[in-house]
Amino acid sequence: MTETLEKYFVPEPSKYPIFGSIALLMFGSGAVMWLHEVGAGPWVFFLGVAVLIYMLFGWFGQVVRESETGKYGRQVDRSFRWSMGWFIFSEVMFFAAFFGALFYARVFSVPMLGSGDNEALLWPGFAAAWPTAGPQPADAFTPMGAWGIPALNTLILLSSGATVTWAHYGLLKGARGQFKLGLLLTVLLGATFLGFQIYEYLHAYADLNLRLDSGIYGSTFFMLTGFHGLHVTIGAIMLTVMLGRAIAGHFTPEHHFAFEAAAWYWHFVDVVWLLLFVVVYWL
Amino acid sequence: MSAVIPDHLHDHHHPAPGGLMRWITTTNHKDIGTMYLVFSFIMFLSGGVMALTIRAELFQPGLQVVQPEFFNQLTTMHGLVMVFGAIMPAFVGFANWQIPLMIGASDMAFARMNNWSFWLLPPAAMLLIGSFFVPGGATAAGWTLYAPLSVQMGMGMDLAIFAVHIMGISSIMGAINIVVTILNMRAPGMTMMKMPLFCWTWLITAYLLIAVMPVLAGAVTMILTDRHFGTSFFNAAGGGDPVMFQHIFWFFGHPEVYIMILPAFGIVSQIIPAFARKPLFGYASMVYATASIAILSFVVWAHHMFTTGMPVAGQLFFMYATMLIAVPTGVKVFNWVATMWRGALSFEPPMLWATGFIFVFTMGGFTGLICAIAPIDIQVQDTYYVVAHFHYVLVAGSLFALFAGAYYWLPKWTGVMPSETLGRLHFWCSIVFFNITFFPMHFLGLAGMPRRIPDYALQFADFNAMASVGAFGFGLSQLIFIAVAVRCARGIGQRATARPWDGAEGLEWTVPSPAPHHTFETAPVLR
Q1: Spatial distance between the Cα atoms of A135 and B350, rounded to a whole number of angstroms
Q2: Which sequence ranges are marked TM in the entry (chain B) (predicted)?
């Protein structure tokens, strides 16, 4: 039978999607209740998170079992490749919204607040220079410098991109030890990155008086780096799962797209960081 | 080509759960497509009831039926429900049913994820509709959720934000599924340029969805953090700008407009050739026109914002870019007309709806051009002229195409021909009442009646009374469709053959009617 005529794997009916839907319903309604100080809010919220974790474990576990029992042919493999690429594109557009907000604030809204009628009538004496918390009377803050922890973190993430590629070469040539060691190093570098980032946030709040509510600088700084940190966390979890599967003997030199998908995601997180480093920290 | 699958090939399937569990756990694209269509019709009726309450209030000047606060909630929720609950899911329902059948695939590429894409919608709808019943009521900031109004509202606004997030997740997963299905699951011999045009339009729509739904997610996330966590994205005192919300929103919002109309173009492009009994005129130009519309949709967003203050160079750029979209859209309209030219035309219900679509949608397109002209837009911004314009493209465009598609493919879905008498009645009532409702709104808008206001000056009374009568007529006409659909689903009416329309072309007509639960498990080979 030729490759194009092999039967495409269509899964059996599954209970997992409805669990995911119930989880997000509880997550959303719990969050809203929590924000409005309704007593049950946090409980509903965390129950939703728990159901979501159960669903992810069950669903991905089933996918792993299907993959390891050889149910996925080459056409299914291509589907996974396409879908991961498009998923990463959607993530790029999500970050684009926040980068767009940063550019808009720096190029349009802050200069406009410090010029023309705005300056003459509304905010006299507002020096429209970046970084700023806007013309409101606010506590002074110190912006985050680029050449301390952020530069170190850049080095760490770039190295982790190299180690994950080294691991991939190991897998391709059948050197399982190199594969596992490379994965372990990548996960450890990712964890180090996150540790530094937490330290940096503590430093910002404790020493620099730089907070989420420090005007537009604080908003863009914490939302951009925070969402990036969240994505590093997700990527590190993906790579940890891949490490566990590697130890369990999964993946062959020909059949290992799950690992590649995690690596693609890791490189995406890496590129976002480079942009962040340049436009949030440096310039 | 071997399209019909012999029964013995089905043996390896485990017995599917019955009853409600069948629908909750299903991985079958036809079941999921049906759920999308039923859900979207329920949401269409819910949004319709809101619209009729609005029209009841506007029947006369003065306040009779609802309080102004509730009126604002109704206009907001009518928009959100119709856009995210009715029109978009209905097109995804069509995609689920038709794309695998049209390209000869056994199912969607990710059948389990397909189920989740659908089952995220009921929770989102619960959050959205439920927000009417929380303290402060539903969000009343308009469906565009403009800051700073959306930063100030109560609990209903937060529920709307999470509902939008969940619907966005659903749309992105659905769109990835559709893109991958079309790119990777085509039967051997089905090259891209042999694909039915409905698949092409959905491929491009899905690309737009993946590109812009995350941007909307970003926008509402910024509102959420501005509301509760002290950020200053849309707060001028903190260095932000409420106008920035409009930029981010409409960067999503304008491609969103084409997300709601491109699949409609696809449906009409399937139906016109079938009932003109001629191949589609200019297939390749249709594909390129669709792609051009999609690309241009990313560079026109600020035409929604001419009155917010913008440099003249910006106004001119967005004005000309917008008018450029008329070129590929014109290509499409001329191609449809050229397809009908000297065809052996017949006007069964699908063709009635499709030709009605061309007439009325084109009028909406022309008023769109008028709105695109910056100096005129400054006059008609936020008047009933805009309301008339976008209802001509969304109701007479998207909705009429959805009905055209439903009448066209109901025989394939149910095995029963939809009643021709009821179908004609549905169409003629709809198009007459539609125009009675929305045509006077052009005059109201040009005369200066503002939208989203529950009361109005006396000189607007006659046209408003007319529009309200038309709206109730239009709403009641839609009940005819329930009769049509229920009759088909219950098997009342003439049996459909595998190819009930003699001019219809495509793989979906090679399988029996109703389409068996599993089709094309072994791909057909096209030559």
Answers
A1: 60
A2: 36-56, 76-97, 118-147, 159-185, 197-224, 244-268, 280-304, 316-338, 350-376, 388-410, 422-443, 463-486
Give the per-residue pLDDT at B15.
Answer: 63
Closest chain B residue by Cα to residue A14 = B25
- pLDDT band, very low/low/confident/very high, at B5 (cuts 50, 70, 90): very low
Provide the pLDDT for residue A1: 36
- Contact assignment for B185 to A82 by CB distance below 8 Å: no
pTM equals 0.95
Residues, chain B, total? 527
pLDDT of residue A5: 53
> B307: which 2 tokens?
């009155």
Q: Is residue B525 a part of any domain in this protein?
A: no
Q: Which of A52, A8, A48 is nearest to A29 (CA)?
A: A48
Give the minimum alpha-carbon distance from A276 to chain B in angstroms, rounded to a whole number. Answer: 17
Across the interface, of A82, A110, A222, the residue whose CB is closest to B179 is A82
Does the pLDDT at position B10 exceed 70?
no
Residues A36 and A161 reside in one and the same domain:
no
What is the distance in angstroms between the Cα of A86 and the nearest Cα belonging to chain B? 6
pLDDT digit string, tens, across residues B351-361: 999 999 999 99
CB contact under 8 A, B523 and A4: yes
Contacts B217 to A, Cβ<8 Å: 94, 97
Q: Best of A6, A18, A37, A60 to disrupt the B interface by mutation (most B CBs within 10 Å)?
A: A18
Cβ-Cβ contacts under 8 Å, A11 against chain B: 27, 111-112
> Would you call A113 and B236 a contact, using CB atoms and an 8 Å cutoff?
yes
Least CB–CB distance from B180: residue in A16, A79, A213: A79
Number of domains in chain A: 2
Q: Does A38 map to a domain? A: yes
Cα–Cα distance measured from residue B360 to residue B345, given in angstroms and rounded to the nearest whole number: 19
Pairs across A and B, CB distance < 8 A: 221
Structure-token pair, residue A94: 């999500």
**Chain B CB within 8 Å of residue A5 CB:** yes
User: What confidence tens digit (pLDDT) does each residue in B441-473 have?
Assistant: 999 999 999 999 999 999 999 999 999 999 999
> In terms of residue numbers, what domain contains A191?
74-282
Please tell me the predicted confidence (pLDDT) of residue A117: 87
- Subunit contact B25:A18, Cβ cutoff 8 A: yes
Task: Say if residue B263's pLDDT is above 90.
Answer: yes
What are the tens digits of pLDDT across the range A153-166?
999 999 999 999 99
A226 Cβ partners below 8 Å, 6+ apart? none
- The whole-number pLDDT of residue A116 equals 86
Residue A3 covered by a domain: no
For the domain that residue B267 is a member of, what is the CATH number? 1.20.210.10
Any CB–CB contact under 8 A between A37 and chain B? Answer: no
pLDDT at B4: 44
User: A12 vs B214: CB contact, 8 Å cut-off?
Assistant: no
Is A216 at the interface with chain B, CB within 8 A? yes
CA-based nearest residue to B501, from B338, B196, B277:
B277
Look at A116-120, A189-193, B96-100, B282-286 and tell me which has the smallest mean pLDDT. Answer: A116-120
**A116 touches B at CB < 8 Å:** no
Helix segments in B232-282, DSSP class H: 242-276
- DSSP string covering B122-179: HHHHHHHHHGGGSTT-S--STTTT-TTHHHH--HHHHHHHHHHHHHHHHHHHHHHHHH
- Cβ within 8 Å, pair A11-B112: yes
Tell me if B244 sits within 8 A of A101, measured CB to CB: yes
Mean pLDDT within B45-49: 97
| A272 and A152 in a common domain | yes
Dihedral over Cα of A153, A155, A160, A161: its sign: positive
Overall average pLDDT of the A221-235 stretch: 97
Mean pLDDT calculated for residue range B400-412:
97
pLDDT tops 50 at residue A10: yes
Quick check: B269 pLDDT over 90? yes
